[in-house]
Amino acid sequence: MSDRTTSRPTRLVLMNPGPVVTDDRVRSALAGPDMCHREPEFSELMTRVRHKVTLVGGGDERHTSVVLTGSGTCAVEAAVTSAVPADGALLVVDNGHYGERFQHIAATYGIRTRRLEFGWAAPVHLAAVDRALADDPGLTHVGVVHHETSSGMLNDVAAIARIAHAHGRQVIVDAVSSIGAERLSLAEDGIDWLAGSANKCLEGAPGLAFVCAARTAFEALGGGPRRTYYLDLYRHHTAQEKAAAPAFTPGIPAFHAFDAALDLALAEGRQARHERYEGLARQLRDGLERLGLELLLPAEQRAAALTAVRIPAGTGYGELHRGLRAEGFVIYGVQEQLAEDFFRLSTMGRMTTGDIALFLTTLARLLPAHR
Asked: How far is CA 354 from the centre of its chain?
């Protein structure tokens, strides 16, 4: 009888959209020194991370960031619940699972919404956003996802921000799956509130999220509602900016890792990283199409870091997942409406062209038509 453990792959390639395969330097940083979060050493670490996050988000001296211990969802929730005033309301731009998340967050806190449902994997109609804001002066904010990870759709948040600002409204952008991979800038795109995560295209470890905005916007929250305790951005901003200390106990190892990951991101540069991600996605998509597989979105609508693929006839997601997992590749299902017909392949993280080539060879061997 053979020992089955000897056939397990030595390296697992994560093709799920976060957490991602990280650089060795990021993993090593997780073993950084123990420290107390109320001592100067952590204060310096947190301040460095906040400054670097603001830079990768395209901010300038007018902007700053708050770093939270939690997933990307906590950053989106903190932005919605802190930024929308007591008498305000949120226009929800919904073309997938994460657009719908804006609706669920607002409903949980009793924030009035108007929801524009375009359908999963359907592009946003900018004229509809314009009309909705014109029709309802009580809508103070617009919530939109940059990279709608449920389908791989890339939404034009800069255009939506221009429309919102023409009506005197603010924009909250869920950039959890886009920052680090896509062209996105607080200063250049007019984004009022940007929510992101450490462990996707910024290639850090799981456990940290952040919100970037103008310094004046954070300060203005002092007169707003306190809908939550832990996710109150004014509380976190005041602690981090004025006391150089976290409001609550942070995930210190994740800070060490994020500091290292941000150094790598800044050294690589936003354009170079975007091109690296685009190159991996192009290699993957070209290979998938050569295998006769159907991609969900047309090329002009796809984000750089994720591809949704129709499940081939004669197999199912579970069978594909098990077969590829045994060969060292983790693929990902699709939520709700697309779950029966599609699966997702992320090219986030420290993936290589060799990884993509081996994945395509392995997938071809597992497909019914190639058995």
From this structure: 25
pTM of the model: 0.95
Mean pLDDT of 161-185: 97
Q: What's the Cα-to-Cα distance from 48 to each of 42, 112, 246, rounded to whole Å?
A: 10, 37, 13
Contacts of 63 (CB under 8 A, 6+ apart): 54, 57, 186, 187, 212, 213, 214, 215
Own/partner pairs, 322-331, CB within 8 angstroms, 24+ separation:
323/366, 324/359, 324/362, 324/363, 324/366, 327/9, 327/362, 328/9, 328/10, 328/11, 328/12, 328/13, 329/12, 329/13, 329/15, 329/359, 329/362, 330/12, 330/13, 330/14, 330/15, 330/16, 331/15, 331/16
Q: Confidence class of residue 337 from pLDDT cuts 50, 70 and 90?
A: confident
Average pLDDT over residues 68-87: 98
Kindly give the residue spans of alpha helices, DSSP state H, lying in 251-309. 252-268, 270-290
* Domains of the chain: residue spans and CATH: 4-17+269-370 (3.90.1150.10), 26-268 (3.40.640.10)
Beta strands at 13-14 and 329-330: parallel, antiparallel or unpaired: parallel
Burial classification of residue 35, based on how many CB atoms lie within 10 Å of its CB (0-12 exposed, 13-18 middle, 19 or more buried): middle
Nearest C-alpha neighbor of 308 from the set 15, 10, 91: 15
The predicted pLDDT at position 163 comes to 98
Report CA-CA distances (Å) from 177 to 21, 119, 185, 234, 293.
15, 20, 14, 24, 24
Q: How far apart are CA 155 and CA 148, in angstroms?
A: 7
- Segment 114-135, tens digit of pLDDT: 999 999 999 999 999 999 999 9
Q: Is the pLDDT of residue 332 over 80?
A: yes
Q: Give the side-chain half-sphere CA count within 13 A for 84.
A: 31
Cα dihedral 258, 248, 210, 349 sign: positive
Kindly tell me the number of DSSP H helices and DSSP E strands found in the chain.
Answer: 13, 14
* Token duo for residue 1: 């009888």
Which pLDDT value is given to residue 370? 62
Handedness of CA 272, 273, 277, 283 (dihedral sign): positive
User: How far is 204 from 251, CA to CA, in rounded Å?
Assistant: 13
pLDDT class of 371 with cuts at 50, 70, 90: low
Mean of pLDDT values over 95-116: 98
